[in-house]
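Deliverable D2.4 — example input (structure tokens):
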């Protein structure tokens, strides 16, 4: 599976006590345009899995080429992945990360256990993109062969 290149996202939510949770996901895709629905896959053994199993809302942050550190932060096991990170609350209270290429605020509509993962289906209720002048620009961060890569400019 490491030969498949994919975009990189960080998915966040707020737990029942308001504590933020998040994970890096390269298993993300658009499922439907009407209504706009996406899916993301979460390892059921992840520390944050209980929070995402219970949460009604989540946010998907599509990362830009300059956000390898952000991807790495949320890919590691850590008791507080949000330490020292400035976030803002989304419309549902879900923590939103700065400088993503795009951010989708979503309501979870279905959870499906498949093998060792939980597939989260979520309907998009709000979407925003970074402008060209913002730090992430519009070049996506990619994951391929167990490493992060930036998409080069075509020529």
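Example output (designed residues):
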């Amino acid at each position: 599976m490491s030969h498949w290149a994919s975009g990189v996202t960080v998915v966040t939510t707020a737990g029942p006590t308001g504590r933020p949770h998040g994970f890096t996901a390269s298993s993300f895709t658009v499922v439907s345009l009407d209504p706009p629905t996406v899916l993301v896959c979460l390892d059921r053994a992840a520390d944050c899995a209980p929070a995402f199993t219970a949460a009604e809302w989540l946010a998907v942050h599509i990362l830009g080429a300059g956000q390898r550190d952000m991807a790495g932060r949320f890919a590691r096991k850590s008791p507080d992945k949000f330490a020292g990170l400035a976030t803002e609350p989304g419309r549902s209270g879900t923590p939103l990360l700065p400088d993503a290429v795009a951010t989708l605020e979503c309501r979870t509509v279905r959870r499906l256990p498949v093998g060792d993962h939980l597939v989260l289906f979520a309907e998009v209720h709000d979407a925003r993109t970074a402008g060209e002048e913002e730090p992430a620009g519009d070049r996506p961060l990619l994951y391929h062969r167990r490493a992060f890569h930036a998409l080069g400019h075509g020529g």
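The longest strand covers residues 102-114.
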